[in-house]
Structure formats: structure tokens, C-alpha cells
Amino acid sequence: MSRSAAAIEARAGDGTAALVGYLPVGFPDVETSVRAARTLVDAGADVIELGLPYSDPGMDGEVIQHAVQTALDTGTRTADVLRAVEQVAETGAAVLVMTYFNPVHRYGVDRFARDLAAAGGAGLITPDLIPDEAGEWISAAEEHDLDRVFLVAPSSTDERLAMTARACRGFVYAASTMGVTGARASVDGAAQELVARTRAADDRHHVCVGLGVSTGGQAAEIAGYADGVIVGSAFVRALAGAAGDTEAGLRELHSLAAEIAAGAHSGGTEGEAR
Amino acid sequence: MTSSPSARPLEATPGPYFGDFGGRFVPEALIAALDDLTAAWEELRVDPDYLAEMDQLHRTYTGRPSPITEVPRFAAHGAEGVRILLKREDLNHTGSHKINNVLGQALLTRKIGKKRVIAETGAGQHGVATATAAALLGLECTVYMGAEDVQRQALNVARMRLLGTEVIPVTTGSRTLKDAINEAFRDWVTNVETTNYVFGTAAGPHPFPAMVRDLQRIIGDEARAQVLDLTGALPDAVLACVGGGSNAIGIFNAFLDDDVRLIGLEAAGDGVETGRHASSITGGDPGVLHGARTFVLQDDDGQTRESHSISAGLDYPGVGPEHSWLSQLGRAEYQPVTDAEAMEAFRVLCRTEGIIPAIESAHALAGALRLSRELGAAGVPSGHEPVLLVNLSGRGDKDVETAAKWFDMLPQHESENLSEEGADV
């Protein structure tokens, strides 16, 4: 059974949307990043994405890129990420790892899947691994009962939406806009259309919207048409906001996460979620 | 998926896979653009109007065919009885083979109706070529260049700006070519509706490795005919430097199904054993970088390791996937050449033949001298003079400052006039 799907389903049953929160492991240090992820859970996040830092994060904007570089500079390793998964999964939240493919490739795809499952992880989100190239990972995920979350984009054709959704387990990650990660003043109108097109292509999966979400109002708006709201850069920025003051950063993170969770869990401003 | 060494023909393998290598490891948002490019390229590569326009540009703008030059005084530094021929891509407009690829991709950009091109550049040669083609075809152009390389190659930055291109220094990561590619991909994913990415080498996601290879194959086609014409036979070996590997794959491709040794020379910096090098095949492992599965310099966690080379153009921790495949098949050999070996070959060519090569190309020249000595030591059979064909991929104008510092040829007061960080040797 997919743990991320179950967490999203619990919200969908109430007619609201789930909050999926991202933070990179190792920013500002491994211990604080684990505390920060637990803070997200306390504040109401339903699914946690833990970022595995990578040297060449081609799909990330400035905020996450900087955080990830800091994590690498301070020596964060793949083994630290697996330990962080274990510590955050203890909260009962579904914990996915978000990673570019090379660190998994290097670790050994099957070995990574085995160790991730053993740590209590729910699965992987892979921003640079499309299903076309993911045969080895999909087999390993099957073997170790892990979720596999692939992305769809406004530029995806209907055929690719159907193919990608078929390959997913857990949920489908709808990238709201053409671009990289980073908080935006408004979430692109293309997001709603993309969610509708994805559902039309394959209606078996929950569809969550990410890229650009940073406020409770945006979360409430997305909750009106999607099953989940994915937030990353805004949380990283909040955590980093109180430079050098860990406790203040965690308080700021809690406050923002609670606001966005309230928006996501409000059931939306434009009618019921599915 | 893996091809056997006996599978022929090897030339013009269409991609997206070259044995275990290649593919498209990119965000989904780029797939539509890559599909569009693939379809447009499949159509254009056999389109008579496009081929005629490319031919016209090559003849009247680039200066093709580039000649081959026999260099007996240089060859004398190898072994007696071994002939060395240079394919003179250094004589192309903008100073290197890069223009072959860029003109093709710029015309493609116009064909698919986009008005803006972006590119990455290391030494600046691909950036200058792209800026040139953009000016020629009236396209808007932005070039990403690592901040470190902006310092090392200030002259090429000025050239790009004179040609009307915006140059954006990239300050993330190692501040070199690898990071410029990341930044260009970020721009592309954001602006893909209006913008085409003119990729500089035969690496990256499909269709770039095959498309860039096809556009650079003109080097091999010309050289093959020219060597046959001059010597009556195919060369014994073809040598070219390999960073990303576009000049090498361009010349190799025309000989892949012949009985000719193909040798790629990788930048070994201080020596592969020191860890300070850019020899992705010799000193790396299979991985995924910049959209393709290929050999990559990486640590135990799969983080990209920084590369090191005196040559900014070879200073890249990955390599085109077709080279990884040819190495795996044993069809091409890849050998490391240190900074010191390359600079010695650079010096010899300058002094013996009056040609100042790009430091990139000097790696191939060093490989030729090494092979020549090996052949000489093994005993050249009587009646057969081995012929080594070296791709001189670019000229050394951009490298004069680096070379002058390396050889300590500038008096102190003149040296002070150069920027303090001008040439990082």
C-alpha cells in the first residue's frame, strides 16, 4: 500500500488537500534539517519530501540551490539522508526522498531502494528521471514496495501525461509552471489546466501541485482543484531567514507551514477537492 | 540495448542510446522541446534546401573546406618515417570547429520559429561561435559562462559582447563550464517556448549528441577524402582532443567503420593519479550528468567532482555518451595527456611550423608525438610510412596569455599589465 497515497487520501476524504513539504537534508546542518522536517509534521504537513543534496541541481532555483550547496559544503552524505528518513518517518508521516538520479545510480538503484525501505521511507520523487529512463528504478520500487513520483509539466502531451501517470505510484507531481523551483507571487493558471488534463489522462492517481507555492492563500486556491499542495523554496527561505539563529528559523518555519497547511486543509476557495 | 563490437555500421548511430550510454535524463518540462528538436533535425538533416544553405555558408562564411597541412618539422620530434597531417579547423571563421555545429543549430532555430538562442561556454569558443551565428541570422543571444572562465577568457567575453550577445557570468558551484550548462538548462526550462538551446558539444540529452556529431562530421568527411587524395590510403590513426568531444566525434565518425585507429586525448591536468584532471573516461565512472548516462568524474556519493585542466575548453567532468560507448566497445582508445605534455607539444608546433594551436588541440598533438614514438620504437615496417591525422580543432589566439605565462615569456613589467587572474595556470 502506498503510504503517500494513504496520507493524501485521508485529506481527500475530508474534501481538502494535503500539504507536501520539502526540505533538503543537511541545511543548515543534518541535525537541524531533521528537526525542521519534524516541525513541518507538527505544523500539519501530511507528506515530507527530504531532499538528497546534489552538486548539479538543474531544476532548482536560487534558494534551494544555495541550501543544497551549503549541505554539500558541510559534508552531507547519502548515508545522512537515509538516517534522516528514519528519524522523520518515526513521526508517522509519509517520507519521500526527492533526488536527482545520479546519487541513486551511484549508490546502486536496488541497494538504494532496499535501504530506503529499511529506513521507513515511502518512496522517491525524481525531477530528472522520466519514466522512459526509469526501468531499473521502477523494478526496484516494485520489489521494495516503494512509491515512485514522476513529474508532469504544462508542456507534456496527453500521451506523455497518460504514460507518466501510469508509471507513478503515490501521486503525480504537477509542475505548475514552466521553470525552476522558487516562490512566486502567483501560481500559474496553467496548473489548474494541467491537473485537469492529468486526471483526464489517468484518473487513478492523486495529483499534487508544486513550483511557486508560498502562501496560505495560494494553497487554498490549489486545494480547490488538486489533491495536494507541494511547498519547498518558501520553507527553505523561512528556515534560513533567521541567519545563524536556529530556534528562530524553526519558529518561522512552523508559523509559515501552519499557515499554508491551514490553506491546504481549508477545502479550497473554489469548491470541493475531489 | 548494448551493441556488440561487430555491429556495423557504427557511423551515424541515431541515438538516443549508444550501447549503455545516452538517453534523456532531464525534467519532463524539457521533453516536448527535445522531441520537437529531434523531429526538426530528422527532417532537416536530409532536407536539400537546408543542406544547400549549410554548404553555401560553409564555403562563403566559414571558409570550408579547411585544408590539411603536413607538418614534417613537427613530426621530426616524434619518430623518423612517421608522417603527421593536421586537419586545419583552426582556420575556420571564429577560430575553431565550433562554427560547424553552431551554424547548423542556428538555422534549425530559425526553422522551428524561435527568435532567441542560449548557449553555454567554457573557453569562450562556443560562445563566440553562437554569438556570431546569432548576429548573422538576427537572433537574440544569451551566453552563460562560469565566472572563473569569464576571468580566464576575457578576450572572448569582449568578442561576444561586440557581437551583440549578453554574457551572464555564473557564480554557482565550481563557477566553470559545468555550472554554465546547469544555468543554461534552467533558462531553457523557463523560456522554452521562445528559446532554443544551442548546445556546444556532443553531450547532453538526446538529440544533442547525435545532432552535434552529424554537424561536426563534415570534419571527418573532408579529412578522409583529403588524406586519400594526398597519400592514396587511409591514415593509420586519427587523433583528436576530447573534452565533451564534439571535434573528436566529428572526425572519428567518418572513419568508424574503417580499419583506422581512433585515439581521443583527454586532459589529464596534473596527472590522472593526482585527482586533478579532466579525464572522464580514463579516470571517471559511468553516471548521469547534464541529461545523459556517460562517464563522469564523481565521488562515492555521485556528486560531480571538479575537473582541472590548463585548457578551459577541456575542463569538463563529463564526456559525450558516444565516446563512452566507443571506449566500451574498444573501437576508440582514450588516453590522458597532462598539462605539461600538451604545452610541450604546443611549443614544438609553434617553433617548427609557425602554427599557434589552441591548448585543447595541443593535447591531440601531444598524443600524436607519443604515438609516433611508440611506432618508431616498435620499428616502422619498410615500405610503409605510418600516417597520423591530427584534428587541429582550434587556434591559440585565446590562449596566448596562458601560454606566455606557462613559458614565463613575459618580462615582469609586461606581465603586470595582464589581469592578475587572467590565466589560471
UniProtKB/TrEMBL annotation, chain A:
Its EC number is 4.2.1.20. Pathway: Amino-acid biosynthesis; L-tryptophan biosynthesis; L-tryptophan from chorismate: step 5/5. It catalyses: (1S,2R)-1-C-(indol-3-yl)glycerol 3-phosphate + L-serine = D-glyceraldehyde 3-phosphate + L-tryptophan + H2O. PROSITE patterns: TRP_SYNTHASE_ALPHA. Keywords: Amino-acid biosynthesis, Aromatic amino acid biosynthesis, Lyase, Tryptophan biosynthesis. One of its GO terms (cellular component) is cytosol. Transmembrane segments: none annotated. It is an enzyme of class 4 (lyase). The active site is at 49 (proton acceptor), 60 (proton acceptor). Coiled coil: none annotated. InterPro entries: Aldolase_TIM, RibuloseP-bd_barrel, Trp_synthase_alpha_AS, Trp_synthase_suA. GO terms for molecular function: tryptophan synthase activity. Pfam families: Trp_syntA (PF00290). Belongs to the TrpA family. NCBIfam families: trpA. HAMAP family: Trp_synth_alpha. The alpha subunit is responsible for the aldol cleavage of indoleglycerol phosphate to indole and glyceraldehyde 3-phosphate. Tetramer of two alpha and two beta chains. This is Tryptophan synthase alpha chain. It comes from Bogoriella caseilytica.
TrEMBL record, chain B:
Signal peptide: none annotated. GO terms for cellular component: cytoplasm. It catalyses: (1S,2R)-1-C-(indol-3-yl)glycerol 3-phosphate + L-serine = D-glyceraldehyde 3-phosphate + L-tryptophan + H2O. Its EC number is 4.2.1.20. Keywords: Amino-acid biosynthesis, Aromatic amino acid biosynthesis, Lyase, Pyridoxal phosphate, Tryptophan biosynthesis. It holds the Pfam family PALP. Residues 62-377 form the Tryptophan synthase beta chain-like PALP domain. Its cofactor is pyridoxal 5'-phosphate. GO terms for molecular function: tryptophan synthase activity. HAMAP family: Trp_synth_beta (MF_00133). The beta subunit is responsible for the synthesis of L-tryptophan from indole and L-serine. Belongs to the TrpB family. This is Tryptophan synthase beta chain. It comes from Bogoriella caseilytica.
